[in-house]
């Protein structure tokens, strides 16, 4: 499932990958469980952050 997505994901992508609702995806981002970057008004999530979350690993540091 992750292979078909770009290296940078949206919250919608995250919810589809994890098969959770949009609110659940926003909660993961808000809590820091999945790291994200805000670009103006949009949230972007590095694919590597999702992979680390699924593996239970520490999140990579973002610039």
Which characteristics define this entry?
63 residues; alpha+beta; Arc Repressor Mutant, subunit A; three-stranded antiparallel β-sheet; 3 helices; globular
Topology:
Blueprint (H helix, E strand, L loop, with lengths): L7 E2 L1 H8 L3 H10 L5 E3 L2 E5 H9 L8
Antiparallel strand pairs: 1-3, 2-3
Written description of the protein model:
The chain is an alpha+beta fold and about 60 residues long. The protein has one domain (about 1-55): Arc Repressor Mutant, subunit A (Orthogonal Bundle), CATH 1.10.10. It is built from three helices and three strands, in the order βααββα. The chain has helices spanning about 10-20, 20-30, 45-55, and strands at about 10, 35-40, 40-45. The protein has a three-stranded antiparallel β-sheet with strand order 1-3-2. Helix 1 (about 10-20) crosses helix 2 (about 20-30).
Strand order of the largest sheet: 1-3-2
**Helical content, roughly?**
40-55%
H/I helix tally: 3
The general outline is: globular
Domain unit count: 1
Mean of the pLDDT scores?
A: 92
SS class: alpha+beta
Number of strands: 3
Q: Under the CATH scheme, which class?
A: Mainly Alpha
Low-confidence stretches: none
Strand content: 15-25%
Instruction: Measure the end-to-end span.
Output: 26 Å
